[in-house]
Design brief:
It contains six helices and seven strands; from the N terminus they run E-H-H-H-E-E-H-E-H-E-H-E-E. The protein is of the alpha+beta class.
Length: 186
């Protein structure tokens, strides 16, 4: 195996992140979101969106690499109030110390090689350096692989769910939470 690393993304990485998003979403989310939604990614200005995301203040975008290949990405930062609020809209006591893992994606052909763990570990370390202690993320309830990954990292559902309109139906997501002091296990 070539050297595997995680590094901060730069605007010049936007096209590669968009490529990974298109490819991964097509492989993993067509059944959940529908072919029309996935096909719409081909015409979307994902590269422009990723450039904006990479340069947005307070947001950190990380890339996982193996040798010369970019194999995954993660977006993290302080958790916005709407991402951590209770069902009644109230903020938790530790709102100011909570980070969000907005997305974590590894291209399928590079899966099961530790890239997701390295991405999450790097994001958690940097969020802790910013004074955050707890993290949250949202995962499709039917995405058993991703749910299992976060459970192995010590994160668990907190009982909060949301339903997203996909245009062809609904997608139910569960919110997971856990410490940013990770102990990833296999």
């Amino acid at each position: 195996m070539s050297a595997a690393e995680v590094r901060p993304a730069t605007p010049s990485d936007a096209a590669e992140i968009a490529r990974i998003q298109r490819l991964t979403w097509r492989a993993a989310y067509t059944d959940l979101l529908g072919a029309e939604a996935i096909d719409a990614l081909d015409g979307a200005d994902l590269e422009g969106t990723w450039t904006e995301t990479i340069t947005f203040p307070g947001t950190r975008v990380y890339l996982a690499t193996e040798g010369d290949f970019t194999v995954g990405y993660c977006v993290a930062g302080p958790a916005p109030a709407e991402e951590i609020a209770s069902a009644d809209g109230s903020a938790p006591e530790d709102a100011a110390a909570t980070g969000l893992i907005a997305t974590l994606v590894v291209e399928p052909r590079w899966g099961r090689r530790g890239h997701a763990g390295r991405l999450l570990g790097t994001a958690a370390t940097d969020l802790r350096a910013d004074g955050l202690e707890r993290g949250v993320t949202w995962v499709a309830q039917s995405d058993h692989a991703t749910l299992g990954f976060y459970r192995r990292a010590g994160w668990a559902p907190d009982g909060t769910v949301r339903t997203l309109d996909t245009g062809r139906g609904t997608l139910r997501e569960v919110r997971l939470t856990g410490t940013l002091r990770l102990e990833l296990t296999r």
